[in-house]
Amino acid sequence: MPEKENDRTIFTLLEVTKSIQKTLSERYKSSFWVKAEMNKLNMYPSSGHCYPDLVEKKDGKIIAEIMANIWKDDYQRINNNFLNVLKEPLKSGINILFCAKINYTPENGLRLRIIDIDPSYSLGNLEKEKQETINKLKLEGIYNTNKSLQLSLLPKRIAIISVQTSKGYSDFVQIIETNPWGYKLFMMLFPALLQGDRAAETIMKQLVRIKKVKDHFDAVAIIRGGGGDVGLSCYNNYELSRAIAMFPIPVITGIGHSTNETVSEMIAFKNAITPTELADFLLQKFHNYSVPVQKAQETITDKTGRLLKEENLRLFNSVRYFKSITGNLLIKSHNEIHNKYRSLLQLTGYFIQRNREQQVSLISGLKRNTHLQLSNGHQQIRQTGLIFRKDMITYLNRSKAVVDQSVFQIRRGARFAFMGFAQSIDLAKIKLFDRGVNFIRNEKREIDVIEKNIALMSPANVLRRGYSITTINGKVLQKVEGVNAGDKMVTIISDGEITSVVNNIKKTE
Amino acid sequence: MNEKPNYKEAYDELQVIVSEIEGGSISVDELSKKVKRAALLIKVCKNKLTATEEDVNNILKELESTEGL
Question: Distance (Å, rounded) from C-alpha A158 to C-alpha A181?
Fold first, then answer.
């Protein structure tokens, strides 16, 4: 009970809050439907309860605000309804029509307890929002701005807004990187959230970044996939859609869902339903470039080959024609030459024949002349010879006479000379004989004297005169030297020999 | 004649050559020159299909320099 103090009644907080609780529960007995904007869902995953922040705005200003709660079981049911109807989970920032009870507790104060939320109201609201975005873009005249850009003939350089771990991203990259034609694309990932409350904000942030380096890229690809059909309302966001529409290079989308196109997809340069299809779209661009190039190569090869073949054929025909013409000409010329040759031969023969006849007559004329001249010469020579002979005979006879005379004189001279000579020889002969006889006589005398002397001196005569010759050992003894007592000594005298032995030796002084 | 045509110029010029050759308006004397040129253009085109020139690091550097401001 409340205390009394100096005329003031003082309640405890619990008494007051309990009073409020009592009043409110009596006043608001039933539940009722309310429409509001759910500013924040404030879902607590650990408990599974939500504590939404509900507001009502007017001209952008909050004019009413209240806290609410959704208990776990209610939240799960409501969220499933939303996913079924809206393809969106219950999330912050949407307008909702909800059934609530006013709930007041002393501990937590005033809360609207949300029992149910009508998804169709939110859906209509989302559709309205989407329509508003479209209208605004059209009004600004930028609805077709990105579509009217020119995509590079070969969109090779792609800035990708996606999530590394998303299946759509990996599908996209794989299709492009393993394309069997060897096309090469340059891809660079700019990571962003692709669904939910923060998607629009992070995508726009990356668009701003890409814009700074847009010269390096041919297109921006927003790729999402594998996330089901929920959480796509962000792509109806006006700011995001505007950013895409105004982006300076083409934006292509492969967001991957089966619901109605979002505004972002509508205003994008190209929207593919899935990342796979988007990859095919790009590869198709490469085909569109590659095939004509390939075909050009084939056409050029083929046409050039054919052209050359035709030209070759033409040349071949020309050569053949030329050959046949020149061949004919050659044959004709050959014949002409042959004919000329033959007529020349004939003419020459004729000329030679004529020349020969002339020659013969000339030679016979010459012969006749020569003969005549020769016989003339002969006669002259004979005459000269005769004269010469006569002269020679005369001369010889004269010479003979001279010689004969000379011989006669020489003979006479010689005879005289010879006779004189013989006389002097006979004289000399007589003188020589006399002298020779005297000489021989004198010589004989002298020789007789010498002979007498020689006979006197012979050893026999000497021995006869009393001399002897003594020998020792056959040697004539002349000196006492070398003679020893006892030596056998032979003494030769005129009528014999005496043998003695040496007794004594004495040398004469 | 552009000595270093980009891939689009190469593509366009190639188409012109093809139509010229197809039209049979090219003499044999010109043909060799055209075919040589076409071979170069085809090379440029094919090269473009299968090569990349961009570098992630360069782009990141460029981004950093602007974001650092």
Answer: 18
H or E element: which one contains A182?
Answer: none
Predicted structure pTM score? 0.59
Q: Find the residue in A nearest to B65 (Cα).
A: A212
How many domains are contained in chain A?
Answer: 3
Residue A468: what pLDDT?
84
Q: From the list A183, A296, A311, which residue is nearest B42 (CB)?
A: A296
Q: Are residues A176 and A284 in the same domain?
A: yes
Q: Are residues A448 and A470 in the same domain?
A: yes
Hey, is B49 helix, strand or coil?
Answer: helix
Please state whether beta strands A94-105 and A61-69 pair in parallel, antiparallel, or not at all (unpaired): unpaired
Residue of A303, A311, A312, A314 to mutate when probing chain B, most B C-beta within 10 A: A303
Domain that holds residue A468: 435-477+488-494
Residues (pLDDT < 50) of chain A are none
* A44 and A83 both lie in a single domain: yes
**A281 and A177, same structural domain?**
yes
Q: How do residues A72-103 score in pLDDT, each as one tens digit?
A: 999 999 999 988 888 788 888 888 999 999 99
Amino acid at A304: T
Residue A306 inside a domain? The answer is no
At A9-19, the pLDDT tens digits run 899 999 999 99
In whole angstroms, give the CA distance from residue A105 to residue B33: 94
Contacts of B37 in chain A (CB under 8 A): none
